[in-house]
Structures are given as structure tokens and as C-alpha cells.
Design the sequence.
């Protein structure tokens, strides 16, 4: 007790550095994990050592907020498979069945709690900001190269309907997409899910998205300013929608604090730089900037 001190009130709401996750595809041999199984897992994961690095991908975030992941070591060995082979765990066939029977849907991305540097992808309103970690942004070039290869061997789309997942080519680059609206003259409006932007494209620029293409988590993560959580989304867009581009530059690096997650999966963030500009109220809309520029000519 002599080594303990009360935690200052201002630090009680500070998010920790650790994120609790579950490894997909395994379960204990009995009802609970035994001490031997836990000890074996600690050996595989080199718990307590900082020399071993793992590649971690979020497989899903369930309705209770639990994060399920897959892990590979630096040599590309799947950790779940290794634990099954060494009899530390047994295969969870129910999990595999759940994945195989699930409809094809893009897997939402996630953010770690706490203060961090992120990349702004799209800013629609204070209640709809799309950002991603620096690591995920750097992986985009690799992802797009893979999509180019996938599109080359994929089947052209002949018919589509809203919510269909597709590969979409915009300005010569292939992206993962989701059909928003089917229009006339073989045109469709597509959401480029990893950038959280939309494009109107010809059907000729669409390809069928395979399960392999869809299994990677979405780069763009939806966020809401913490001070706007209980506000009206429609009002937020009407008041700030045409001003966001003047306050937040797309693909810029900014500092935010991730403070929580809403039931719908959207993250709550504190974004001091943006909130300061909004409180100042001096940002001009796109229309205002265009009128001012025309007046000077």
C-alpha cells in the first residue's frame, strides 16, 4: 500500500496504451484456458519481449465491441495455426463456419484509443469525418497494386444494384467500391470505401469483387467529434458541410485523440485544430471562396 498513490482526476479519463483483442479461429481444449495453454501462448507470442513483432489485422468488431484479429509473425507464420499445430489450442470450427457462411461485406477498420497522428481522408461534417492510421495509409499503395492485378483477372460487371460490392476504376486506378445508386445510360454512383469518397462511373469501369479482395479491413474509419455526438446529423451537414474543405485538407496529417466508440461502430474523437477553427467561425465556404475569387477578376 505504501507504494500506491491516488490517480489524479485529470488522468482518470486518459485512454490506456493497451487494446484488448481476441485471436480468431481458436478456442481452448476444455471449457476454459488452462495454465499450461496460457503459458504456451506466452511462449509463442514472446510476451514481455519487444524484439518480436507481429502483423495484426482486424477481422471483425462484434456487436459487443470485442475486436477479433488474425496475427502473423515476421516470417509470415499464422499464429492461430501455430497454436493449433502445437496443441496449445484447438480449431474453432464454428468461427470458420461463421466466416464461410457470412455474406460478402467489407470489414470495418478500427483505431487505437489515445492521442495519435492520423491521416484525414474525407471531412463531410463534424459528425462524419473519415480518417485512418498512418500505417494503414502507407499500405494503400500496396493495396492498390493488388487491386490492379485482381481487376485484370476479374469478370466485368453486367448488372448491379445498390449495395453491391465491386472493383471500381476511377481515373485509371482501381479501388474497392460499393454501389450507392444505379443511374441511367449504364452509369452508377460508387462509394470508394477505402477513401470514403464517391465517384460516378460507367459500368464498363466495374469488375466483380472476389472474397479475397473484400477480406482486408476498410482503410477509412468513420469518426464523430466528441462534442457533437448527440447533435443532429442533418443540421451538422447543412451548417458545416460546404465549409469542411476549408478547414480540413484531404490527406493531411493531424493530431487527434480517440476517446471511445459509439454503438454503431463510429469512433468518438477530439480534434483540437478543427474545433478551434469551428469556434472561431471565420472559415469560408467553397461558394464564398469562389465568389471572392471572381470579384477580384
Sequence:
Amino acid at each position: 500500500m505504501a507504494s500506491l498513490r491516488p490517480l489524479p482526476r485529470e488522468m482518470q479519463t486518459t485512454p490506456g496504451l493497451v487494446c484488448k483483442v481476441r485471436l480468431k479461429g481458436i478456442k481452448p481444449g476444455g471449457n476454459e484456458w488452462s495454465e499450461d495453454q496460457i503459458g504456451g501462448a506466452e511462449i509463442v507470442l514472446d510476451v514481455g519481449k519487444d524484439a518480436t513483432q507481429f502483423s495484426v489485422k482486424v477481422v471483425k468488431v462484434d456487436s459487443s465491441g470485442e475486436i477479433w484479429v488474425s496475427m502473423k509473425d515476421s516470417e509470415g507464420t499464422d499464429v492461430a495455426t501455430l497454436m493449433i499445430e502445437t496443441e496449445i489450442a484447438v480449431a474453432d470450427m464454428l468461427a470458420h463456419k461463421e466466416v464461410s457462411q457470412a455474406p460478402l461485406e467489407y470489414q470495418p477498420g478500427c483505431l487505437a484509443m489515445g492521442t495519435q497522428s492520423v491521416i484525414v481522408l474525407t471531412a463531410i461534417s463534424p459528425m462524419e469525418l473519415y480518417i485512418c492510421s498512418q500505417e494503414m495509409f502507407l499500405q494503400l499503395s500496396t493495396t492498390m497494386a493488388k487491386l490492379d492485378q485482381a481487376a485484370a483477372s476479374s469478370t466485368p460487371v453486367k448488372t448491379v444494384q445498390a449495395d453491391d460490392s465491386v472493383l471500381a476504376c476511377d481515373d485509371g486506378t482501381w479501388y474497392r467500391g460499393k454501389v450507392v445508386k444505379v443511374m441511367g445510360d449504364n452509369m452508377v454512383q460508387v462509394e470508394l470505401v477505402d477513401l470514403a469518397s464517391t465517384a460516378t462511373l460507367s459500368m464498363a469501369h466495374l469488375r466483380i469483387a472476389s472474397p479475397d479482395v473484400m477480406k482486408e479491413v476498410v482503410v477509412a474509419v468513420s469518426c464523430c467529434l466528441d462534442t457533437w455526438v448527440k447533435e443532429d446529423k442533418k443540421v451538422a451537414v447543412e451548417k458545416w458541410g460546404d465549409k469542411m474543405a476549408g478547414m480540413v485538407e484531404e490527406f493531411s496529417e493531424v493530431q487527434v485523440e480517440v476517446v471511445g466508440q459509439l454503438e454503431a461502430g463510429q469512433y468518438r474523437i477530439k480534434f483540437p485544430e478543427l474545433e478551434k477553427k469551428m469556434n472561431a467561425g471565420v472559415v469560408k465556404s467553397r461558394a464564398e471562396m469562389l465568389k471572392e475569387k471572381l470579384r477580384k477578376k
